[in-house]
Each structure stands twice: as C-alpha cells, then as structure tokens.
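Hi C.,

You asked whether I'd gotten around to modeling the 80-residue construct. I have! Everything is below, sequence then structure, no commentary in between.
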Amino acid sequence: MKAMSAKLSSRGQMVLPKEARRALGVEAGDTVLVIVEGESVRLVPRPASYARYTGALGKEAWAALGGADAFLAEERASWE
C-alpha cells in the first residue's frame, strides 16, 4: 500500500495524483465511482457495465437461501 496526499480546493475539488490515476487505469475525462464505507472512501473506475459490476453482489444472500432455483421453487409452492 502506498499513501499519497491531495489538497482540496475551496470548491471541494482535488487532483488525483498521477500514480493513483495510473493504478486505477483512468485518464482525463474518465469517471470514477466514489464509494463511502463508514469513515473510509474508495475510488474505483466506472465499470463499463453496471449489470456485470453488481451481478455478484447478492451471491452470499442467495447461497443462504439455498440458491436461486431452490428459492424460486419454494416461492412458487407457497402460491398454491
């Protein structure tokens, strides 16, 4: 891990250091996502596809329910 600093302007803007831009694979005009988790902030490059980016977010939840197919079968059975 490497720490860098960036100064905020009076308008809340900052310049992302060159090494950080290189690590993220972003350049001028690109968009980054700012993810706030408690008191921490992560920057990640904007994904080409949000569907792919968020596709596995519920993986643990579905596993806890026995998988999507089992959950769907149970839901359908409850309709009868």
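If it helps when you're writing up: The first helix runs from residue 18 to 24.

Thanks,
B.
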